[in-house]
Amino acid sequence: MVPDTSPRRFLVNTGVTAFTSAVNFFLGFLVLSAARQSLGDAGLGVWSLAMGLLVMSPLIDFGLGAALGIVVARHVGSGDGNRLNEALNAYASMAFPLAAVVTFAGVFASPWLADSLMRNSEWNGQAATLFAFVFGVIGMQIAGSLIGGVLIGYQLLSEFRIWNLIWQTVKTLGIIWLLHRHADLHMIGWWLLIGSAGFIVTAWSLWMKRVPVRMKLARPSRAAIRELWHAALPLQLNRLAGSLLGQVDKFVLALFVGAVMAGWYELSARLAGAILYLPGFMLAALAPAVAAISGSGAHDRALDMMRLSSRYLNLLVFPLAGFLWLYAPPLLHWWVGDVNGSVVISARVLLGMFFLLAVQQPMINALLGMGKQHVVLRFSLIVVLLNVPVSAILVWHYGFLGACWGSLTTVVIASALFFAALFRERIISAGCWKDAWLRPMPATAITILAMGILPLSPGSLPAVIKCLVVGGTLYFFLIFLTKAITMDDIKRFRAAWESR
Asked: How is residue 338 annotated by DSSP?
C-alpha cells in the first residue's frame, strides 16, 4: 500500500481530526462538570491532578512515540522499507521496557505522590489508587504508540482518530455514570484501564487490515535509534513546554496552596485551552503530511502548506479568542455553576497565553516535518527553563493567580524570540506574515466589537448563543468582504478535494 499524500487525504485527515477533537473537548467539559458536582472542589482537585499526569504521558516516552509517526511517514514517502522496519524495531527496543518500568514504578510511587500533593487526608487513599491506574494507562499508551506511529505514518490518521473517539466516548460516558452513582475512584480507574486496552486492540486490528507492512523482528541499528532520537528531541521539548504551561502549574499550586487551587486552575485552563484545539484539528495531519512531502523532495509545496495552514488557522483562532475573553463569566457559570472571581480572571490571563501558543503551532509542526528542529528547540527550551521557576516565585508571593501570570510572562518572552528567529533565518517573510496575520484582523476586530456591544445578561447561556450566532454570521460575510478568504482559496479547496 502506497500512502495517500494527496491534498484530498490531508483535508480528510484534518476534517476528521477537527470533528473528533471537538467531540473529545466537549466530553472533557462534561466529565469536569460531573466531577465537580459529585466530588466537590477537593475531589475535583484530585481528578485534575490525575488527568494532568495522563495528559503529560507523552513526555514519559521522551517524544519517541510522536517521532515514530514522522519517521515512518518519511521512509514511506521515500519508499525505503528496510529503514522503516529498522525504525519500528528501534522504537520497540526502547519503548516496551520503558512502558514496563513506568507502570511498575508509578504504581509503587502513587501513595507517596498522593501524600505529597493532597492536604486533605480523606482523599489520600483514593488519590493514590487513581494515580496507580493512571500510570498503568500511561504504560499501555507508550507501548501502543508503535501502532499509532505506523497508522499515522501511512496517512491513516482519520481512521485512527475515529476509533479513538469511539473508545473515548465509551470511557467518558462510563465515568460520568460512575460519578453520578457516587462510585469511588477505584472503579473509575478500572474503567480507564479497560477502555484504553480496548482502543489499543482496535488500533492493532486496523494496522493488520489496512497496512501491508509487518514488523520483522531484528536487532535495532544505531542509525535507526539516532534517527528516532533526532526527531524526538525537538518534539519532546515542544511537548514539555506545552505540559509545563498547561499541566505542571496545577502541581505547583497543589504543593504551595492546595489541591483545591489545582481544580480551579483546571477549570480556567480547560475553558481558555479551547483555543488550542483548533491547531490540534489540523496539526495532527500537518506534521506527517509535511514529512512525507519533504521526503519526496517537494520543499516548496511544504512551505506553501505551512503558510496556508497558518492563515486558515488564524481565521478561526482570532474570533474564538475574542469570544472566550468576552463571555468567560457566563460560560463558566453555565458549565460548573458559581465560581470564585479569581477563576474568571485566570481564564482570561491563560487565554492570552494559549492564543500565542495556538498561532505558532502550524509553523512549529511544519518545521519539525521539514527537519528544521533547531528553530523549534529555541522556543521550547526557553519555556522549559523559565516557566516553573517564574510560576513558583509568583505563586509563592501572589497565590493562585501567580501561576497564570507566570505562564503568560514566559510565553510572551519565548514567542518574541521565536518569531525573531523565523524572520532572521528567512523561514517566513513579511509577505507570509501579512497573509497569515494581517488579513484576518479587520474582520475579527469588527466582529468582536459588535459582539461586545450586544446586550448580555450575566450567566445567560441563550444570550451567549445569540451573540455567537450573530457574530459568526457577521464574521462569515466580513472575511469575504475584507478578502481574508477569496475565490482563489475556494478554488484551491475544491481542487484539493477533487484531487486523487
From this structure: S
Classify residue 198: in a domain, yes or no: yes
Residue 394: band (very low, low, confident or very high) from pLDDT cuts 50, 70, 90 = confident
Asked if residues 339 and 297 have their Cβ atoms less than 8 Å apart, the reply is: no
CA dihedral sign of residues 146, 87, 96, 28: negative
Q: Rounded to 5 degrees, what angle do the CA atoms 421, 425, 430 make? A: 85
Contact 295, 423 (CB under 8 A): no
Question: How many Cα neighbours within 13 Å face the side chain of 308?
Answer: 19
> Is 212 part of a structural domain of the chain?
yes
Dihedral sign of CA atoms 489, 322, 246, 383 in order: positive
C-alpha–C-alpha distance, residues 169 and 163, integer Å: 10
Residue 214, domain extent: 7-440+484-498
Cell 507523552 belongs to residue: 58
Cell numbers standing for residue 400: 493562585
Compute the distance between CA of residue 56 and CA of residue 392 in angstroms, rounded to an integer.
Answer: 19
Residue the block writes with cell 477505584: 186
Question: Alpha-carbon dihedral of residues 148, 149, 155, 161, nearest 10 degrees?
Answer: 20
Cα gap 489→122, rounded to integer Å: 58
User: pLDDT tens digit string along 264-320?
Assistant: 787 788 788 778 766 655 555 555 555 555 555 556 666 666 777 777 778 888 888
From residue 165, give the alpha-carbon distance in Å to each of 54, 57, 90. Answer: 17, 18, 29
Which are the contacts of 303, defined by CB distance < 8 A and separation ≥ 6?
A: 366, 370
- For residue 205, being part of any structural domain is answered with yes
Is residue 467 one of the residues assigned to a domain?
A: no
What whole-number distance in Å separates Cα of residue 289 and Cα of residue 13?
10
SS3 content of the chain, % helix, strand, coil (to 5): 85, 0, 15
The residue among 401, 360, 407 whose CA lies nearest residue 384 is 407
Cα dihedral 413, 414, 415, 418 in deg (nearest 10): 130
Burial of 142 (0-12, 13-18, 19+ CB in 10 A): buried
Predicted pLDDT at 458: 47
Domain count along the chain: 1
pLDDT in tens, 192-235: 888 888 888 888 888 787 777 676 777 777 777 777 777 777 66
